[in-house]
Design brief:
By secondary structure, the chain is an alpha+beta fold. The protein has five helices and four strands, in the order αβαβαβααβ. The longest helix is centred in the N-terminal third of the chain and has 34 residues, at 4-37.
Length: 129
């Protein structure tokens, strides 16, 4: 049988997780339009937030598909984080469609994002030449 202190800690953790979820939702609502304006082709939410298992230390896990011809990965991530200025911890993966296809079958966060993620934004097809 648990003590009153155990129940209180569990309740406090639940309140902290609820507050964290609210803060992450607000940050996501702020970041999504910035990602779209920066030219994202697709934005996918994955990780604990997407699974509904937010805890007090949860962050935002985002997969961002960027246009072909994007700068090299370190440069594009530096620019993206600079534009977004996240106010909460964020793990952002930013790949071109070709890079994504190459990584899709490998174990890791890209496979997790593609298998379990929720598409938040998907650019309409362009009327290219």
């Amino acid at each position: 049988m648990g003590s009153g202190g155990d129940r209180r800690r569990t309740a406090d953790a639940g309140l902290a997780a609820a507050g964290r979820r609210s803060a992450l939702e607000a940050e996501l609502a702020r970041l999504l339009p910035l990602l779209v304006a920066s030219g994202a082709l697709r934005v996918v939410l994955y990780g604990s937030m997407n699974r509904g298992r937010v805890h007090p230390d949860s962050d935002l896990d985002l997969l961002v598909v960027v246009p072909p011809g994007a700068p090299p990965l370190p440069v594009r991530l530096a620019r993206l984080y600079g534009r977004l200025s996240p106010r909460l911890p964020c793990d952002i993966l930013a790949y071109t469609p070709a890079e994504l296809r190459a990584l899709a079958g490998l174990p890791g966060p890209v496979a997790e994002a593609l298998a379990e993620g929720r598409i938040l934004y998907d650019a309409p097809p362009s009327d290219g030449p």
